[in-house]
Amino acid sequence: GINTGKLRIRIFLIGSIIIASVVSFTGLIGFVGLVIPHIARLLVGPDHRIMLPASAFLGGIFLILCDVLARTVIAPTEIPIGAITAIIGAPLFIYLLRRKNK
Q1: Range of the structural domain that residue 23 is part of
Q2: What topology does the record note for this protein and the membrane (predicted)?
Q3: 77 phi and psi, to 5 degrees?
Q4: 89 touches 31 (CB < 8 A)
Q5: What's the domain count of the chain?
Q6: Do 23 and 35 belong to one domain?
Q7: Which of 38, 70, 77, 102 sees the fewest Cβ atoms within 10 Å?
Q8: Burial 58-72 (b: 16+ CB within 10 A, else e)
C-alpha cells in the first residue's frame, strides 16, 4: 500500500510551494477568502454544492471590481489591490462578526 502519512506531507509541501509562488507573483490579497464565502452563504444558503461555485464566482467578481477601483480612483497612479480589498473587506468582516454574535 501507500504510506498515507508521507503522501499527505508531500501534497502539503507541493501545495505550499504552488501557493507561495502565486503570492510572490500577484501580491497579497486579503479578506477575499474571509468575507466572500460568508456573503455567498447569505445569498445561496448553506448547501456546499452551490456555495462553493458561488464563492468562486463572487470572489472573482469582487477582485475585478477592486482592480477597477484600484486603477481608476486616482488615475493614472494605481493603488495596490490589496489596499482596496482591505478597505472594503475589513468593514464587511467586522459587520459579519458582529451580526453572527447577535
Answers
A1: 1-28
A2: Multi-pass membrane protein
A3: -80, 140
A4: yes
A5: 2
A6: no
A7: 102
A8: bbeebbeebeebbee
